[in-house]
Amino acid sequence: MSKISKIGVLTSGGDAPGMNPCIRAVVRTAIFNGLQVVGIKQGYKGMIENDMYEMGTRSVSNILNLGGTILKTARCLPFRTDEGMETAYQNIKAQGIDGLVVIGGDGTFTGALRFSQKYPDISVIGVPGTIDNDLYGSTYTLGFDTATNTVIEAIDKIRDTADSHDRLFFVEVMGRDSGAIALRAGISCGAEAILLPEKSTAMEDLIAHLKNGAINKKSSSIVIVAEGDKTGGIYDLAKAVQQEITHYDIKVTVLGHLQRGGAPSSFDRVLGSRLGFAAVNALISGQSQKMVGLEANHIKLTPLEEALSHHDFKLESDLLQMMDILAI
Ligand code: ATP
């Protein structure tokens, strides 16, 4: 018999496509197992402000195809304080919640771990939900695949105009600390260069590479720049390159928040469903302070402490190795 009788589910930090399929899986798996489920609105803010509601199987009808999160999300400063956590705990206890599924990124997990260390009678399981794909313990995080597909669709369109006008486009994509979206999108779109926070690129090398492209009769060039690239802001970068490469008309596009939206891809719908299902089963089997992830196509539980202690999340080395070679 499970010790858990009532599960609270929340989404926190940045929204990511795939959160809704995950919420749906949590609700239905819990109800199938005879548990009650409460939806907590706006992440930890809803715990502190007691903004929660009972969910049933029909509360999650027709949400598989929706981007964003029906529970809404927020960044909540008061949850970082002892007083905020105590208020959240009292509200959770009053609701009768004894297990939490938190869907979010490393900040969300840090909060969850602190909360459950302080109040060990509440079991907590984390689900990696962030478009940045930068959490240790899961090869993929919810939203990464959809966000990358959105970027690819946009860059394919940019390529059409770049090609027609002999233009060089600098395209900024999300990723303050992680180049995962930039790298995947760059390989998928045949970008001439990909600038990543994890890898320094010398300006002379970039210019030489782009000049070489022109010598090889490329009719257009796309340079993908992750937000966190250290070479300099995208506008300054474009200006510096324009001084050296005058035959191309250089344009800058910042894709921005459109990368977060849209219907989740098939991959993110299935991943959200698998992780939500696994999170509830982990709570039922007595687990706590763990993250559910997918590694080698199998569900894996990683202690939150371990998931949070690895900041050396690596990009795929073969993609890094091929990115310049395939763009010659
Ligand atoms: P993303 O990767 O999309 O940014 P995230 O989960 O890392 O998602 P954050 O804004 O860093 O997003 O964290 C979400 C929330 O988690 C914060 O608003 C806060 O409520 C809580 N949180 C973060 N760090 C802590 C902490 N040290 N102690 C308590 N709560 C925290």
UniProtKB/TrEMBL annotation:
Residues holding ATP: G14, R75, C76, G105, D106, G107, T108
Residues the record lists as binding substrate: T130, I131, D132, R167, M174, G175, R176, E227, K251, H257, L258, Q259, R260
Pathway, per record: Carbohydrate degradation; glycolysis; D-glyceraldehyde 3-phosphate and glycerone phosphate from D-glucose: step 3/4
Ranges for domain Phosphofructokinase: 6-283
Enzymatic reactions: beta-D-fructose 6-phosphate + ATP = beta-D-fructose 1,6-bisphosphate + ADP + H(+)
Cofactor field: Mg(2+)
Protein name: ATP-dependent 6-phosphofructokinase
Residues that, per the record, bind ADP: R24, A25, V26, V27, R28, R159, G190, A191, E192, K218, S219, S220
Record keywords, A-Z: Allosteric enzyme, ATP-binding, Cytoplasm, Glycolysis, Kinase, Magnesium, Metal-binding, Nucleotide-binding, Transferase
Domain of life per record: Bacteria
HAMAP family in the record: Phosphofructokinase_I_B1
Annotated gene: pfkA_2
Family: Belongs to the phosphofructokinase type A (PFKA) family. ATP-dependent PFK group I subfamily. Prokaryotic clade 'B1' sub-subfamily.
Function per UniProt: Catalyzes the phosphorylation of D-fructose 6-phosphate to fructose 1,6-bisphosphate by ATP, the first committing step of glycolysis.
